[in-house]
């Protein structure tokens, strides 16, 4: 599930950073317009993982905070608690039940995943992804992002669904034909966020694993 979480968080973050970019075609321009005014996003999520036949493998829910550039706090609350946190340079994965935190740097590979997506520069987004635009259910706008370099990505395709300026849904398609859907609710844009939200200090007794 870590792979899917990184993909979703990155996707939102990288796209949050798209103030302007010059990829040709109206799809890129429309995505820019949808996201240009957003510097931070917070809310609740429900995550559903499905296999290639569409059967539900597992589901979870929690809360999130995303801020450009590259910062996120992804808190899974049920069925098992986990926290995925990044300040843009380091990622912490904290498992309270196991009393351990895994620490890893944000390298180039992770920057092409969906939690970094919303924080990347506009030029970086246009260089890294092929962007398409379509109309989904209820007339919602759906943007598809396919990595240009498939070897370096954690996902095969990503979809972002909007109702006007409101981001409703993120869908991550992986190379095994599994899909992970993140339905976002109670979202708020551009609210102040304390810097401490995106760092992690291991509580006493927690094992620290360096990856």
TrEMBL record:
Pfam families: LolA. It is found in: Periplasm. Keywords: Chaperone, Lipoprotein, Periplasm, Protein transport, Signal, Transport. It comes from the Bacteria. Residues 1-22 form the signal peptide. Monomer. Belongs to the LolA family. Participates in the translocation of lipoproteins from the inner membrane to the outer membrane. Only forms a complex with a lipoprotein if the residue after the N-terminal Cys is not an aspartate (The Asp acts as a targeting signal to indicate that the lipoprotein should stay in the inner membrane). This is Outer-membrane lipoprotein carrier protein. It comes from Gilvimarinus japonicus. The lineage of its organism: Bacteria, Pseudomonadati, Pseudomonadota, Gammaproteobacteria, Cellvibrionales.
């Amino acid at each position: 599930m870590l792979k899917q979480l990184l993909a979703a968080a990155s996707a939102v973050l990288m796209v949050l950073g798209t103030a302007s970019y010059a990829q040709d075609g109206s799809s890129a321009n429309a995505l820019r317009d949808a996201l240009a005014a957003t510097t931070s996003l917070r809310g609740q999520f429900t995550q559903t993982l499905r296999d290639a036949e569409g059967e539900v493998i597992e589901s979870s829910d929690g809360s999130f905070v995303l801020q450009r550039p590259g910062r996120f706090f992804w808190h899974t609350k049920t069925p098992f608690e986990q926290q995925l946190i990044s300040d843009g340079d380091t990622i912490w994965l904290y498992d309270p039940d196991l009393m351990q935190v895994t620490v890893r740097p944000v390298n180039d590979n992770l920057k092409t995943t969906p939690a970094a997506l919303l924080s990347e520069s506009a030029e970086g987004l246009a260089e890294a992804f092929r962007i398409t635009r379509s109309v989904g259910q209820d007339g919602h706008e759906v943007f598809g992002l396919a990595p240009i370099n498939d070897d370096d990505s954690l996902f095969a395709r990503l979809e972002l669904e909007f109702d006007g300026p409101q981001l409703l849904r993120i869908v991550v398609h992986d190379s095994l034909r599994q899909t992970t859907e993140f339905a976002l609710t109670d979202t708020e844009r551009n609210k102040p966020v304390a810097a401490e939200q995106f760092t992690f200090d291991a509580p006493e007794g927690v094992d620290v694993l360096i990856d």
